[in-house]
Amino acid sequence: MKKVAIGMSGGVDSSVAAAMLLEKGYEVIGITMLLCEEGACLSSVEEDARKVCEKLGIEHHVVDFRGKFKEKVVDYFVDEYLAGRTPNPCIACNKHLKFDAMLEKAKELGADYIATGHYAKVLYNEDTGRYYLKQSESVEKDQTYVLYNLKQEQLKRLLMPLGDVENKEEVRKYAEKLGLSTAGKPDSMEICFIPDNDYAGFIERNRNYKATEGDFVDKNGNVLGKHKGIIHYTVGQRKGLGVTFGKPMFVTKIDAENNRVVLGEKGEEFSEGLLCDSLNFITVEKITEPIKVWTKVRYSAKPALATLSMADENTAKVVFDQPQRAVTPGQAVVFYDDENVVIGGGIIK
C-alpha cells in the first residue's frame, strides 16, 4: 500500500483525485499550500481542503509557501511585465512550488508519490526508459501546456488520476456521489493572486510603481498616439488601446526600453516563427536535428504544425508551417508529437 501526498487546493478536481486514489488502495495524505496573502489563494482554500480531507478520512497538512511563492511567482510576474513581456504565472508556480517544493515536503512525510488534480497523463516508455507526459482524455480541460517543465524525477513519482476522465461533468458527479462539499465549487478563472483581474493595478501596488505614458508607434517608428503605460498591453491585443485609429490595430511588440508600444494593421499580428529559451525536454534529453512538431503558443491555442530545431545550445527555433497569431514574448511554447505526447517546451523570447 503505497503512500501518496496529494496537493489539495480546495477545489473539486483535487478533491476527486484524492478520492480516486483512495479507491485504488493508496494511503493518501493531503497537502494544502498557502501561497499568497490575498485573493483566491486564501479565500476558503484551507477550509475547503480540510473539510474534504475530513470527509475522506485522510490526514491534512498545511504548508506555508508564501515566501517562496512571492519570490518565484509574484516577483517574476511583476518583473516580466515591467520588462515588456507577458508571463504565465501558473507555469512558474507548477515549476517551483507544486512539483518542486511539494515533492520535497512529500518526501519528508514519507510519501512514495505526489499527486495533483491536473488533467494530464503520465506514461512510462519501456523502449526509451523515460517517463512521458500525455494529453488527457478531456481535450477541453487538458493542462499539459502548463506542465511541460516536469523533470524525469518528478514524473517518476507523479500520479494524476484525472487524466483518464473524459469531462468535468464526470468529476462533479463523482464528487456529488461522495457528498464532497466542493462538488459545486466553480472553477477559478483569474490568476489566483489577482482576483479582480486588474494586472496593471496589482503591479503598481506591488512595486509602488506608476505607469507612465509613452508613444504608440508603427513598425517604422512613426508616432500614432499616446499609451497609458506598457503594463496595460500585451502582444495581439486589439481592444482597450484607449485610442481609435479608424481601422483595427493590434499590439505587435512592446518596447520597454523606450516605453513604446508598437501597433500593426490586421495581419501584422501574425508571426512566421519564434525563438525560445528556458528549455525543458521530456521525451528526449535534447534535440539534435530538426523535427516536425505540433506547437501551442498559449494555453488556449490550437496546435499548429512547425519545424523545431536548435538555434544554439540554449535556444530553440520554431518555424511554423502557417503563420501564427499573437506569438507573445514571456509566454510558453509547448511541443507535441502526433500522439499528443509532450516533447518539451520553453519561454518565447
CATH topology of the largest domain: Rossmann fold
| Domains (count) | 3
Q: Tell me which oligomeric state these chains represent.
A: single chain
Q: CATH superfamily of the largest domain, called what?
A: HUPs
Please give a structural write-up:
This protein is an alpha/beta fold. It folds into 3 domains: 3-178, HUPs (Rossmann fold), CATH 3.40.50.620; 212-265, SH3 type barrels (Roll), CATH 2.30.30; 270-348, Elongation Factor Tu (Ef-tu), domain 3 (Beta Barrel). It is 25% helix and 31% strand. The chain has 7 helices and 17 strands. The chain has helices spanning 12-23, 45-56, 66-82, 89-108, 152-156, 168-178, 199-207, and strands at 3-7, 27-34, 59-64, 113-115, 120-125, 130-135, 158-159, 214-217, 223-227, 249-255, 260-265, 270-281, 291-296, 304-312, 315-325, 332-336, 342-348. It has a 6-stranded antiparallel beta barrel. A hairpin with a 4-residue loop joins strand 5 and strand 6. Helix 1 packs parallel to helix 2. The longest helix has 20 residues, at 89-108. It is globular, with a radius of gyration of 21 Å. It starts with a strand and ends with a strand. The mean pLDDT is 94.
